[in-house]
Amino acid sequence: MMMWVTGGVLFAYAGMLGLCQGLERHYKQVWNRACPRALRVGLRGAGWLALLVSLVLCAQAWGWAMGPVAWLGVLSLAGMLLVLLLPYWPRLAVGLVVALPIWGVIQQVI
């Protein structure tokens, strides 16, 4: 169950980051250049897809009765982490998404 919860949090963070980087202002804050339109649309799509995966993982962990409620808490946690990191350490905020593939490898090993 713990792996489902961890995955839900990581995917929620990745989704929030994708939606955030899909906005011109936040993309420019991190990368110091304008975001091309195709990339902006791709980031937003990937963000929504990651949030959907997060919802499914939360439902796997807690069932469909409590999963969506837990997902809202996970979204709040991921959003708060992003809000706290983005103004001060924007590159670190983007770099934390690297934890997603590492989580996948650890899950396969266990």
Query: Structural class of the helices, strands and pairings?
Result: mainly alpha
The number of helical segments is 5
Major sheet: size, sense and barrel closure? none
Instruction: Indicate the low-confidence ranges by residue numbers.
Output: none
Please provide a written account of the structure.
The protein has five helices and no strands. The radius of gyration is 14 Å and the shape is globular. The model has no long low-confidence stretch (mean pLDDT 90).
List key phrases describing it.
mainly alpha, 5 helices, 110 residues
Concise description?
The protein is built from 5 helices and no strands. The protein has 110 residues and is an all-alpha fold.
Set out the fold topology.
Elements lengths: L1 H20 L2 H8 L5 H49 L4 H6 L3 H11 L1
